[in-house]
Amino acid sequence: MKFVNIESVVIDVELKQRLILDGAMGTMLLNAGLKLGELPELLNFTHPEIIVDVHKKYLMAGANIVSANTFGANSYKINGTQYSVEQVIVEGVKLAKQAIAQTGRVGYVAVDIGSTGKMLEPIGDVEFDDMYEVYKEQMVAAVKAEADCILLETFTDLYELKCAVLAAKENCNIPVIATMSFEQSGRTFFGTSLEAMVVTLEALGVDAVGINCSLGPKELLPLIERIMNIATIPVCIQPNAGLPVMKDGKMYYNIGPDEFGGYIKQYAQLGVSILGGCCGTSPEYISEMAKQISDVPYTMPTNKRLSKICSASTVVDFEDIRVIGERLNPTGKKRLKEAIQNDEIDYILKEAITQKEDGAAILDVNMGLPDIDEVRVLAKMVQQVQGVVDIPLQIDSSNHEAIERAVRIYNGKPLINSVNAKRSSLDSVLPIAKKYGAAVLGLTLDENGIPETAKERYELAKVIVDEAVALGIPKENVLIDCLMVTASAQQELIKETLEAIRLVKQNLGVKTVLGVSNVSFGLPNRPLLNQTMLSMALLNGLDAPILNPGNKQMIDTIDAYRVLTYKDVGSQKYIAKHSNTEVEAKILDTKEINLNTAIIKGLNDDASMQTVRLLTTKAPIEIIEGEIVPALNHVGEAYEKQTLFLPQLIRAAEAAKASFEVLKTKIATNETINTNRVILATVYGDIHDIGKNIVKVIMENYGFNIVDLGKDVSTQTILEAIGKHNIKLVGLSALMTTTVSSMKETIEEIRKNYPDCQVIVGGAVLTPELANFVDADYYAKDAMESVRIAEKIFAAKSNEQDLSVVNTQG
Amino acid sequence: MTSEILRYMQMPYHEASDEFKEQVASVYKEIEDICKPKVICEKYVISLTDNGVYLTDMDFEVTGNDLRKIMASCKSMYILMATLGTQADTFIRRSQTMAISDGLIANACANVLIESVCDMAEEGIDEEYLTMRYSPGYGDVSLDVQEPLIRMLSATKRIGLSTSRSGMLIPTKSVTAFIGVSNHKENRMRSCSSCGMNEICKYRKRGDRCGT
C-alpha cells in the first residue's frame, strides 16, 4: 500500500478509491467467549483460528484494511505473559495475512496500536523517553512483521499519541493512521481538542488523521464536519455502533447496520477517506456501509494554508493580532535569572499564568543562561509550563540542541524562535522545524548582522522562506521578525523596520512578529514610545507583537487598534472590556493597615505596599525583625494553640512572602537573610504534594532556604541535591501507605552517604511509630512543628560550629 | 457542603469568616464547572474465599479480611470507579502555583466533589440493601488491586482512569470502591477502628469525626 501525501488526489494509488477499515475485534472476541480479564492478544497463540476467522469475515464484508489483533501489545501489558511484544505483533500480522491469502481479496494489514494505559508527566508519572521506548518496540516489531501500515487508535491524550507517532516515524517507513476518541464536546478526557489533534498530527506528518470509538456515527457527525473544515490530509473515521444501552444485564449498541451505513455515506460525501467501525460493529455493518458508499464520488480535504500553532487544547492562528508574552526570558530580568538558577519553578510558572491572564495568546519560553544545562532546563520548563497554561508556546533558544529537545517533548505544535539567514542557522534549525512540523520564526539578519535598509531585510526574509520551502516546510509555517532597533541608538532606522514588515507581508505573504518594546531602550517614559511604536507596526502589518502583556497600555492599544481596523466588529469586545475603566480606577484606601496586621490578616497587597512604604525609612533587617518576625510569631503561636487555623496560617505566610519579595529587591544578592538550607521532597512513587508545599511556604517564612525537589522524587535526585547544596536537613513527605517503603529506602541511602544529614518526615499516613520504622530523626505532625524542629536542629548545629571555630582558633 | 470542604482544610466552620466561606463556595462551583466527572458502576457476582472476595466473571480475587467481613452476606457487589478527570488536577496545580492557600481550597473542594460524585452514583443503584462503600487502601485491601481492576473494566478507555507505577490513581481526584449487595440492612458507617488514620486523626483528637 502506498499513501500519497497531502497534495495528491487519492491516498491509495493502487486502489484509486477510498479505503474501508474493518470493524470491532474486541466485540467479536467477547462473542467468541473471551473472558473479561484475559488479554485478547494472547488468542493469537491460543486460538489463532478465531482471529483468522474474524479477519476473513471483515475482508469478505468489503474491508481493504484489516487491523491485526495487536491493540494492547505493549510491554506494560504483555510483560508477565510468556510472550514478547514482538512475538505478539509478528503473530498477529501473520494471521491477518493468512486471512487475506485465504479469501483471495486485496487487503492490507495494519498493526493496531492503542494507548498504553499509563499516563505521561506532568499529569502522570511516566517519562516521555520511557514511553517512547515502549512504542518503539512495537514499531520495530511491525517492520519485522512486514505490516502495511500502523493504525494508532483510541487515544485520549494527544501527548501520548505524539510520542507514539514519533516512534512510528523514526522506526518504520510505512503509512501511519492516527485517531483519537472524543466526547460530544469535541474534547477528549484529557481536554485535547479536535482542532489541536488535527494541527499537531498533520505537523508530525501522519498520513491520515481522525476519530474512532466513544460515540456513534450520529453523534460524531458534527465533529467530523469540524475536522473536514480544517484537515489538509486524508481523514479516517471509525464510530461505534451507536451508544451503549443496557438490556437484561447485557450491553447493546443502539444503531443497526443499515442506519450505520447511512451515516457513513454522509461521511464519505463530506470527503472522509478511510472508513470503518469500532465497538459494537460487526461484518454486517462493514458490508452495509461498503454497499452504501460505493457510488459516492471520492473527494479530498483541501489545504487552506493557514499559519497555526497549538497546545493540546488550544489552536492559535494569526488571522487576528496575537500577543506573544515575553516575560519568560531572563535577558535583563534579575529575579527570573535567580529563579532559573535556583530551580524556583513556582516563580516561573506564576509568570506564565499571569501572562496568560493578562491576555497573551502565546508565551515565549527562553531559559538561556550561562552555566546552566539549557538542553535539559528548557525542555523541563516547557513541560512544566504546559502543565499550568493551555496556550501554545514559542520555544526560544540560540542552542539548536535545546530547541530540538524542547520541540520534541512539546505537547502540540510549537513555534520555534528562531532561525536567521546565516548558513549555520538555516542548516541547524530548519531541519528541526521540518522534522517536527513546527512553525518557525525567521529573523532578518545574516553573517553581516542586521541590514540597515528595508529592502535588504526583505531579501533576507525571502532567503529564509525560500530555504524553508525548498526543505519541504510549508510556507505558512514560517513567520518573519524584521527586528526592532532602539530609537536611542538608531533612530533613523525605525522606518526601515516598519517598511520591511510591509514588504514581507505584501510580497512573501507570511505572518510577522516583532519585539516592540526594544524600541524605547535607553529613553525616558518608555511606555509612551512602546505604545506608539506598536500602533505604527500594527498598521504596517504586524501580526504578533512580542511584549509584556502585564503592560496594560500595550494591550489597550491593541484593543483600540482592533476597533479602528474593523477587526472588533461593532466594537463589542472593546465595549465589554473598557466600559468600566473609570469606575475600576483604583481608589486608594485611606485606611492604613500596618505591615504586622497585613501579615496576620493575610493581605498580600497591603503587605507589599506597607513594605515599600517602610523601606523609605527603615533598613530591610529592621523591617524583618521589627514587623515580619513578630507577626509570624503571633500567627504561629495562635495556630499551635488552635485559635487560628491552617488556611489562615498559610495566608499569613503568603502575605509575609509578598513582603519578603519586596525586600529581596533591596537586599544585595550576597546578603542572604538565612543560609539554613533544607531540602523538601515528596518521596518516589508519591504524586501528592500539597502538604509538602504548605510546609515549604511556612518554613520559607521562618527564614529557611528551601530546595524544593517536587513530588515523586527518586533517592538519587535527593542524594545529588544534598551533595550539591551541602544540606544538613531533609524533609520527606508521603501521603500513601504504599510509599512509606520508598521513604525508608531513601532514608537508608541518606544515612549511608551523608551520615550527618538529618531527616524530618511527615504526611497523611505518617505516625511517630512509622517515622521510627523508616528510621527518621524526627516526625512532624504539621508545618509549624517542622519549623520548630528545624529551628532546634540548626541552633544545635550553629553551637557546634561556634565551638569548632573556638577550637581551631584556640 | 461548605462545612465539609472546610473540614478538609482543618478549619472549624464557626471560625471561618463569611467572606472565606463565600470564596470556598465559589471555587467549588468553578471546579464543578470545569470537571467532567466520569463514573463506572457495575455489578459483579462474588463468592467469599479464605482470604477475601472472588470475582467470578473476572477470575480474580481481591484479598482483604476487612472486605471479606463487609461482604459476608453478599452474593454480588458493585465496583465503583469515579474520576474528576485531569482538569481537576490541572486546576489544583494552577491554583497552588499562584498561592498555596488557593491550592488548599481547590484541593479540598475537589475532594468533596469526588465524594459527592460517588454518593450520586451509589444513589443510582437500585438494590434494597447495600453495604458501606469500601475502597482499596482503606483497611487491608491493597492499592495494588486497582491496576488489574482498571484493566478488566477498561476504565482507562471508558473514563480515563489509570494508575501510577506505585499503584496510585491518576487523575488524583479519583476513587475506586466496592459496594456489596446484601440480603439484610447493613451498618453503613465506616468505623474509626478500621481506618488507617485512627491513631493520628485530628478530628478524633478533638472528639469529632471526619464525616466519611
Describe this structure in words.
The complex is a heterodimer of chains A (810) and B (212). Chain A is an alpha/beta fold and 810 residues long. Chain A is 48% helix and 13% strand. Chain A contains 32 helices and 25 strands. In chain A, the strands form five sheets. Chain A has an eight-stranded parallel β-sheet with strand order 1-10-7-6-5-4-3-2. In chain A, strands 13-14-15-16-17-18-19-20 form an eight-stranded parallel barrel, surrounded by seven helices. In chain A, strands 22-21-23-24-25 form a five-stranded parallel β-sheet, with helices on both faces. The longest helix of chain A has 27 residues, at 783-809. Chain B has eight helices and eight strands, in the order ααβββαβααβααβββα. Chain B has helices at 2-8, 18-34, 65-70, 86-98, 100-123, 146-152, 155-159, 202-205, and strands spanning 38-48, 52-55, 60-63, 74-83, 129-134, 162-163, 169-170, 174-182. The model of chain B has no long low-confidence stretch (mean pLDDT 89).
